[in-house]
Amino acid sequence: MRIGCPKEIKNHEYRVGLTPASVRELAARGHEVLVQTGAGAVIGLADDQYVAAGASIVADAAGVYAQAEMIVKVKEPQPHECLMLRAGQILYTYLHLAPDPEQTAALIKSGAICIAYETITGPGGGLPLLAPMSEVAGRMAIQAGAAHLERSKGGMGILLGGVPGVAPAQVVILGGGVVGTHALQMAVGMGARVTVLDTNVDRLRQLDLVFGNRIGTLFSTTQSVEEAVLGADLVIGGVLIPGAAAPKLVTRAMVARMKQGAVVVDVAIDQGGCFETSHATTHAEPTFVVDGVVHYCVANMPGAVARTSTFALNNATIAHALALADKGWRRALHENVHLRAGLNVAAGMVTYKAVAKALGYAYAAPESLLA
């Protein structure tokens, strides 16, 4: 199969879909790999490294899309990239379609086979292709939140860990999953007072066993969320419903009553965000203020540490990329129910229930396309 890796063009997005090591794996199986010139240059992955691994360098994205049977990316295709997709071409990347009707419509129109990293499941449960970026984003959320609590960045001027004789910041984490756990590790390590909320009591028990009296745990209800948020200096939103729009746990009315200069970091923004006041921002302009509360809602947070993120992502994605290239998408999805869960749009139809429900499309079962 001929596989293409274009350069990412989203604002301050420097990750790359394939590393030279991934290219080498594909080339060793007899596949042809096309990499757009400069795709990994910013993070130290030069064109000559890709050539040494077995890739051919292509001058522009148009050439990659025109020649490749499968496109491997990191972020969702931007509008003019969607126009370069064609019927039957495989697109293998993060998509986050539920809150993005424009992209969904464009992918339907393209007729491409669109497989989303974030909905591929794992044999032991969970979302293994989303997990590495959730780990990065969870850790970055505390880093970003701590920075924006500084007065020069709009925050109330509070040091996350405090100092002897001065209380540390109160951090509230909504969701005890991968994002929440990694945010929790960072916040505790920096000396903050941390409360985590989740609807899964077993998960709260696990976190309590690990962190003991260094954290507080609360079962998530409207009232407990409200009380926690109103007392917080920093709130991390890390809730996830796979493939679906994130629930709005923090209302506009709650935000209006929060402390002046408090900070919220909405890691769920790729799926629409869990704060009613959130809208996606970029690394160039990462924050905005609503009712005196600083909102950090960057939709590609791991892109800021692009080298680390690229290698972590490729570790998770290469096995399925090899399966798709070796077997073709129909056979690969037929043989692997977990990979099949990643099929979101195919041949002009929406093939993921949560996306169909969120955007009002008819749902077509992936199995119906695999004959």
What key attributes describe this structure?
single chain; 371 residues; alpha/beta; Rossmann fold; 2 domains; eight-stranded mixed sheet; seven-stranded mixed sheet; globular
As a percent range, the share of strand residues is: 15-25%
Largest pleated sheet: 8 strands, mixed
Return residue spans where pLDDT drops below 50 for at least 5 consecutive residues.
none
Mean pLDDT: 96
Instruction: Please give the order of strands in the largest beta sheet.
Output: 3-2-1-4-5-6-14-15
Helix content: 25-40%
Structural class: alpha/beta
Can you identify the CATH superfamily of the largest domain?
NAD(P)-binding Rossmann-like Domain
**Which CATH architecture of the largest domain would you pick?**
3-Layer(aba) Sandwich
State the separation between the terminal residues, measured CA to CA. Answer: 20 Å
Integer-rounded radius of gyration: 21 Å
> Outline, from the CA principal axes?
globular
Under the CATH scheme, which class of the largest domain?
A: Alpha Beta
- CATH topology tier name of the largest domain: Rossmann fold
* Annotation field: number of helices: 14
Please describe what this structure looks like:
36% of the residues lie in helices and 16% in strands. By secondary structure, it is α/β, with parallel strands linked by helices. It has two domains: 2-120 and 306-369, Rossmann fold; 131-299, NAD(P)-binding Rossmann-like Domain (Rossmann fold, 3-Layer(aba) Sandwich), CATH 3.40.50. Strands 3-2-1-4-5-6-14-15 form an eight-stranded mixed sheet, sandwiched between helices. A seven-stranded mixed sheet has the order 9-8-7-10-11-13-12, sandwiched between helices. β4, α4 and β5 (90-93) form a beta-alpha-beta unit. The longest helix is centred in the last third of the chain and has 22 residues, at 306-327. The mean pLDDT is 96.
